[in-house]
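Let us begin with a simple case.
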Amino acid sequence: MIRSFYISLALAALLPGLAADPAPRLVEVERIVGMAPHNAFTDLVRFKGRWYCSLREGKAHVSPDGAIRVLSSADGVRWDPAALISSPAGDLRDPKLSVTPDNMLMLNAAITYPPGSPIRRQSLTWFSSDGRTWGEALEIGDPDVWLWGVVWHQSRAYGIGYGDGVARLYTSRDGMRYEKLADRLYDQGSPSEGVIVFTGENTALCVLRRDGEGANALLGRSQAPYRAWTWQDLGVRIGGPRLLRLDDGRIIVGGRLYDGRQRTALCWLDPESGKLTEFLTLPSGGDTGYPGLVFHDGLLWVSYYSSHEGKTSLYIAKVALR
């Protein structure tokens, strides 16, 4: 059982005056050491009253043996294995979880093929009614375009795909068949991982990672049908970005920051000014990032990975927001 690998890092000695201090606080973080040499690239979701967390297991950050592990928990304390998905054809990477409009658990990832294969990678999706038994992998999107993160809005799925220096926007009614809304969403500074959040019925925001030299992440804005976008430099580099809009309208950006020290951080996003304000650095360092974000029962739950304690491991953090 995964539970036997837990190392509890509960932070019992919070600073005085917590009740009066409106600043967000790290309440607790637990480390799941994991069974693979490298445990990374997480996501987190609530589904049918349970927690589900996905991650990639492999020998290294990049290795040909990547497999997808799904963990499940009733209380967010005891985590047990729910499923392990692997492929002899290649490396499965960056599993992302979401809940479909018809109440199925959807898992998105990409397979990277060995050198010499006709294509480098293919985006895939799986569906499950219980998080344990998953259907066959379905190919989605276009070959060699990594459909990295998918979110649902008004019964449609939206996702950013990237490849060959171009980011594209895709949409789907069922999560299986995708069409391109914007074939060249952005094409400067080597755009890569991108995620969308909707701030109203017809307004979308996107945080888009770029990997070109000196290239910062971008904030994109668009109105339905989301074919035309305007972009603003966020002034920082972000890896593995994740977005969450709270019920009060505030927007959280989680991801890996690189400004002199790699770490997993949580930031407030001001969409009007395009400003990011870091409000919490999670215990992290080195090879780290790729958080999943869920607000539940008054706490922000964050899954992420880090190597700051040696072995690259999964962490589950709980954060109190004002």
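The second case is a distinct protein. As before, the sequence precedes its structure tokens.
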Amino acid sequence: MDCYTLFSGSSGNCIYVKEGENEILIDAGANCKKISLALSSIGTDLSRISAVLLTHEHIDHVAALPVVLNARPVPVYCQEKVAKEIYFGYQMHDKPKWAENFAKCVRTVEPDKEYEIGDLVFAPFRTPHDSVDSEGFVLQEGKLGIATDLGFVSPEVRRALLGCENVILEANHDLEMLWNGSYPYQLKERVASDTGHLNNDASAAFAVEMLSAGCGSFTLFHLSAENNTPLLARDAYLARLSEAGAREGREYTLKIAQRSGVTKVL
């Protein structure tokens, strides 16, 4: 398996995965031109993408979808509520062609079931986020686990990701930066809530559990530009994993997904 994060954060999220002859995108944030350039930088292109998996309907995860589907009308896998929200959103904003293309491509999925795209096997699981529905994915029966937006580590998330060999997990904000920052108070509450985003320390604490269950590779995702820094996220992980007796480069590897730039995961 090959995996790269192409974009990460509120300005756009997109992950590339290749298994055998199958190449897919997980989310399609940013814009189509940027995604095409990112794919080119790793030696592939949009014409080779065979499917798109969506975590949820927020714009930083689906902004490029209409243009991607116009260029490459491939199956789009997502939860039923997410499919309806996207479809009716296009209709409401007077984009009937977008709605038509999306309706032709969409394939609805359910949590905790396995689906196949050629050689690629994926299983969705629910994540707690303030969208109409939200999900992460386990690929190749635990080779890779992905959870991009979640307010806390729910039992469903814990069950899905424990045992995964490699994990892409949100480390969105540093709590001190968030509460002392410039966001309006209601937005701070939303980000810190159980349906908001995962903070560095909660993400790192769960990493200790995942490490003990066999995970050896962590890629930190969806870092806030306003309420986090790569150094703070990294230090939170190093501190928690060091307390557990684990050393970077020996028991695990740690990467930070670039906001706009390719990061190799696998």
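The longest helix spans residues 230-243. The chain has one domain: 2-264.
Keep these points in mind for the review questions at the end of the chapter.
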